[in-house]
Amino acid sequence: MRRLTAIIVTTAIVCIAAASTPAAEIGHFNGGFLNIRDYFVPQPAGVYAALYNYVYITGRLNDRHGDAIDSVTVNPGGPSGLTLGIDVNVDLYALAPAVIWVPDWTPFGLKFGALISPTFANASLEAALSTATAHGGNIEAGSFGVGDLFVQPVWIGWAPQHFDLAFAYGFYAPAGRYDTTTVTLPDGNAVRAEESDNLGYGFWTQQLQASGAWYPWTNKATAVATSLTYENHQNKEGFDLKPGDNLTLNWGIGQFLPLTKDHNLLVEIGPAGYDSWQVTDDSGSDASNGVHDQVHGVGGQLGLAYIPWSLALTFHAFHEFSAKDRFQGDAFGLSVAKKLF
Asked: Which residues is 94 bridged to in the sheet?
C-alpha cells in the first residue's frame, strides 16, 4: 500500500511537470500493516477470516539524504528546465480481507497454513506545484478499486514450549488497475509514465519470510516477536525496469492481561516497530540513479480478544522517521479476526 501513494505522487509530478527521471520503486510488503502475532500459524486447526483496515497520512516526501523535498528541477540543464515547488498531502486508506486455512495435519510437530488476501484502496492526493515564475498547477487524484493480490501457499510453523517459529513463501500478483501513458515534454520529446489512477504496481513480487517469537511463560501471555521479510521483484510492465529487492524487519512485544476473572476477555498491549531497506539497485534503462530507499517506524499496539468466540480486535499506530528517497508519515491499522470453523 505504501507503493500506491508513491505511484500517484510520481505520476502527478511526471504528467504535470513533465519530469523525465523515473522515481525510485517501493516494494509491496508494508511493515506497518500486520499485528505482532500475525506472522505465526494460528492454532487450533480450522478456517480463519481477518479484515485489515489501514490508513497512511503524510505531508512529507524525503530525498536521498532524508531531507524534505520542497522543490524539484524538471529537465535540468535543458532548454525547458523548470524549478517547481512541491506541496505533498497524501491520505491513503486500504482494505484487505484475508482467508486463512490451517489443516489438522502436524507431521513431526510442524504446523501448516495458507492464506489469500485481495486488496482494495481509496487514495486521494492534493499536490501543488509552482514554477519559479509563479506559474504552476494543482493536482487532485483519487480512486477506489482492486489492488494487487497476495497469496501465501506455503506457511510452516513449529511451536516448542517457549517459542514460535515460522517460515512462509508468498507472492503478489499484479491484479490491480495499472496503465501507462505517453507524455510529451516541453522540448518535444516523449516519455512513458504511469497513469495517475493506478492501484496496482505493475509487477510480480516473490516474498520469503522468517519469523520467531519467545514466550517467557508457558501460557504465552507475553510474546517477544520479530519477523524478517525479503522481496524479490520482477520486471515492471510498460518500462525497462526491474525494481531492487527489499528487506523489512518487524519487531514487537505483546502482553495479554485479563479483564475478567474467568480470563475470557483479554487486552493486549505492547510496543512495536519496523525497519525497511532497499538492498539491491533498480536495473534497466528506466532505472533511477541507484539510490536505495529506507524507512523506519515505531509505535504500539492495543487489542482485545474474546476467547469463547475466537475473536480479536486490534489497533496499532506507527510514526515514521529517517526515511530516505520516499514518504515519511504516520500509519494506523485496525483489524478484526475470527475463527470461522
From this structure: 54, 121
Task: Please give the Cα distance from 239 to 242 (Å, whole number).
Answer: 9
Per the DSSP assignment, residues forming a β-bridge with 55 are 93, 332
Question: How many other β-carbons are positioned within 10 Å of the β-carbon of residue 5?
Answer: 26
Cα–Cα distance measured from residue 290 to residue 302, given in angstroms and rounded to the nearest whole number? 39
Amino acid at 90: V
Measured CA to CA, the distance from residue 27 to residue 25 in angstroms comes to: 7
Task: Check the CA dihedral 80-85-91-95 and report its sign.
Answer: positive
Residues 7-33: what's their mean pLDDT?
55
Domain boundaries along the sequence of the chain: 2-30+37-339
pTM of the complete model:
0.86
pLDDT of residue 68: 87
- According to DSSP, the β-strands at 330-339 and 246-258 are unpaired
- CATH code assigned to 2-30+37-339: 2.40.128
Which residues contact residue 83 at a Cβ distance below 8 angstroms, ignoring those fewer than 6 apart? 71, 72, 73, 74, 131, 132
Per-residue pLDDT tens over the stretch 125-143: 322 222 222 233 333 446 7
Is the pLDDT at 168 greater than 90? The verdict is: yes
Q: Which of 326, 315, 332, 334 is nearest to 4 (CA)?
A: 326
- Contact residues for 74 (Cβ-Cβ < 8 A; gap 6+): 17, 18, 19, 20, 80, 81, 82, 83, 84
Angle (CA) 28-54-257 rounded to 5° is 115
Q: Hey, is 169 helix, strand or coil?
A: strand
Q: Give the C-alpha separation, 1 to 95, whole Å.
A: 10
Residues 32, 333: contact at Cβ < 8 Å?
yes
pLDDT in tens, 73-82: 655 555 555 5
Pull the grid cell for residue 137. 498547477
